[in-house]
What we know:
heterodimer; A: globular; B: mainly alpha; two-stranded antiparallel sheet
Amino acid sequence: MSPSFREGAREGFRVFLPLSVGLIPWALVTGMTMGGVGFTPLQAMGMNVIVFAGTAQLGTLPLIAAGSPVWLIVVTAFVLNLRFIIFSAALARGFHGVPRAGRWLAGHLLTDGVFATCLEKMLSHEDPHWRLGYYLAPSLWSWLLWQVFAFCGVMAASSIPKGWSLEFMATIALIVLLVPVARLRPMLLAAVTGGVLAVLLRGMPLRLGVIVAIVGGIAAGFAAERWQGEGR
Amino acid sequence: MTYDWTLWIVFILIGLATTLPRGSFIVLGERATLPEGLQKALRYAPAAALAAIVVPDVVMVGGAVEALNPKLAAAIAAVLATQLSRNPWLPFIAGMGVLWAVRHFL
Lengths: 232, 106
């Protein structure tokens, strides 16, 4: 570890620390939901370590609990994480000179919070060691918080009676993610289209309706943006 | 509900589905770029996907649409709490509280 790596790590940690508190309720809720759908603590922590993606975990838990086909669960997780392709593309330049294994690790650890915190410095700081430290320190700190507080949530879930429908916390969490996103008009249209189509097309074989609904929602949002742009 | 060993396969597949998009361009580096049109379209994926999971879950009971049900009331409470407050816990307290209250008192 070079001194500039450590210096970058310290700076990244300092910037990210106050924001990272926001992860705690999410980790607790995800842990409680994993417990609520009936995972053992080992299964829950297995998912938490292997997947390490809050939205994808919360989004797939209702599907896993309902016994949905595996392909639908996997496609849903993929679609929920499509935004990271954009984040990954935006950050890519900052990892110039980092070996491939390090890049995979950096990719696996990428989160919304770290992206928002690190993007500017990742593209502007000239020392690659400093940049890597600046990225990895907040990422590893997020990872640690995510595991510790999810575990607390899993443990809390086992002492709460079944009749309380803890699995509904996943749906509430998805609503909390959706509401701020849908404040922009085209985003709202994408969400409404996706939601309505998913209900209308529920009879399609293999639950293909969900996928058609998502594609329809994306198309509606994209079209609305185009249309809004032309109207200006 | 209990799950067998196949759950671990599902976890690994979900893990791949979440790590591949995150790693994509960081791993490919300067060898690839994302077309601008696709970038714009992808921005709508989370909103469409979240709604496609949430809406059927809150308007349907046992496979049939049921407009007035406790889950929908709870969802509305969660939306209002998210809109009106910055407290990260309130949507969960309001949503679970309404779900529980409607089930027990109506």
